[in-house]
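We store amino acids, tokens; thus:
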Amino acid sequence: MAVFNLRVNGERMSVDVAPEMPLLWALRDHLGLTGTKYSCGIAFCGSCTVLLDGEPIRSCATSVESVGEGEITTIEGMSKDGGHPLQRAWLAEQTVQCGYCHPGQLLQAAALLEKNPHPSDDEIDEYMAGNLCRCGTYLRIRKAIRRVEEGRI
């Protein structure tokens, strides 16, 4: 076990865990940030996506020790009250059915719009392709991203 001082959602948080522990479990089990979801466990589905210095990573396959001094953003850090434009667009477009994948989807979309404020539909589809939605709300997700990109939220 080792103590890691993580920067999560703008705050310093310490965890005493094995260095190889996946970041996902440190966030969920040790810091109580349960918005990040576990699904496949092999970095395939994107449900566990968080941002590390603004870049989407799969927290199920990222060790705590590899994070270093990076700034981690989880869905809880996207906004305190659900007022982030993407969160509002998600509601307006009724993207959520089961909702399980959406924390990862939202963070992936935030990274996309940060890098490319005006993506084409093909660019949205390509960037979001690594985040699987078993309910198949991909077209609604694209519409929600487009809504934010067009300033309609």
The chain has two domains: 2-77, 85-149.
